[in-house]
Design a protein that fits this description.
This is MYO1B protein. With about 350 residues, the protein is mostly helical. Helix content is about 55%, strand content about 5%. The protein contains 13 helices and six strands.
């Protein structure tokens, strides 16, 4: 119920994770259909980039203004920080504060004067402004770090590398908010180089009890985790896509015309393969570089046919090997019999 600076930066991280989830699952997928020339009707979704910008913008973001308050000379309090937010963010559609003198919130008794509220992707969250400035400041003074670095204990010395006289930096230490922002940026950069798989966890109830499902709580999570938009994109789109070359290489054994070698473009080979298998036209689409399969059952059918074909090929290889082995043994026995018979006739 009481949210301060710690919960604020946690929610900021959640917003960034939600943003990369949107980029990779909703935006990127729809752009791929357009890029591949697949007929597609765009599905609208809420992009939370505007919320991330409200928090991390270098000029008008909440973290930037908090750092500015921590660094500027003069009397600095949590109230002056809130006043600054009210001046800069008063008109932002996702920022709410009674001190901003905005007509929308003057009569909102659920919003105290010493708080501000952000409409996050997953709902509105109210933050107590008290303690923001103190928690954002790095209160570990440079002379304390230097004293710890001079300790004889190896562990204590290792915990304070910034106290090394050879690495003295006269600049003011970075604030907690700026350090966290840099860490989140590093995390996002790392995730964007990967191909992540998402697992969304739904909390069924607040009692941590088994076999109890709170329908309102579950629906709230589904709505605010972006699962509805994701399901709409998935149902309207294609469950599987693959480049023509690996697709043909994997399933070419299912068609006599493409097995064992296909002499021609990979796309033409895939077309021949799918026509031979009698897959309905509404179940797949040909892109510029990929084949798109709409329903998982079509893919399961291909995999089942491939598994059966592998078993048939294994049986065929086994049959040919056994025939070769028996024929080789028979020819060897026949040759031996001829040799024995010729020697027997010679001495008979």
């Amino acid at each position: 119920q009481d949210n301060s600076f710690e919960q604020f930066i946690i929610n900021y991280c959640n917003e960034k994770l939600q943003q990369i989830f949107i980029e990779l699952t909703l935006k990127e997928e729809q752009e791929e259909y357009i890029r591949e020339g697949i007929e597609w009707t765009h599905i609208e979704y809420f992009n939370n980039a505007v919320i991330c910008d409200l928090i991390e913008n270098n000029q008008t973001g909440i973290l930037a203004m908090l750092d500015e308050e921590c660094l500027r000379p003069g009397t600095v309090t949590d109230d002056t920080f809130l006043e600054k937010l009210n001046q800069v963010c008063a008109t932002h559609q996702h920022f709410e504060s009674r001190m901003s003198k905005c007509s929308r919130f003057l009569n909102d008794t659920s919003l105290p004067h010493s708080c501000f509220r952000i409409q996050h992707y997953a709902g509105k969250v109210m933050y107590q402004v008290e303690g923001f400035v103190d928690k954002n400041n790095d209160l570990l003074y440079r002379d304390l770090s230097q004293a710890m670095w001079k300790a004889n204990h190896a562990l204590i010395k290792a915990l304070f590398p910034e106290g090394n006289p050879a690495k003295i930096n006269l600049k003011r230490p970075p604030t907690a908010g700026s350090q966290f922002k840099a860490s989140v940026a590093t995390l996002m950069k790392n995730l964007q180089t990967k191909n992540p798989n998402y697992i969304r966890c739904i909390k069924p109830n607040d009692k941590k009890a088994a076999h109890i499902f709170n329908e309102a709580l579950v629906c709230h999570q589904i709505r605010y985790l972006g699962l509805l938009e994701n399901v709409r994109v998935r149902r309207a789109g294609y469950a599987f896509r693959q480049a023509y070359e690996p697709c043909l290489e994997r399933y070419k054994m299912l068609c006599k015309q493409t097995w064992p070698h296909w002499r021609g473009p990979a796309r033409a080979g895939v077309e021949v393969l799918f026509n031979e298998l009698g897959i309905p036209e509404e179940e797949f689409s040909f892109g510029r570089s990929k084949i798109f399969i709409r329903n998982p059952r079509t893919l399961f059918k291909l995999e089942d046919l491939r598994k059966q074909r592998l078993e048939d090929l294994a049986t065929l290889i086994e049959k040919i090997y056994r025939g070769w082995k028996c024929r080789t043994r028979f020819l060897l026995m026949k040759k031996c019999q001829i040799v024995i018979a010729s020697w027997y006739r010679r001495y008979a």
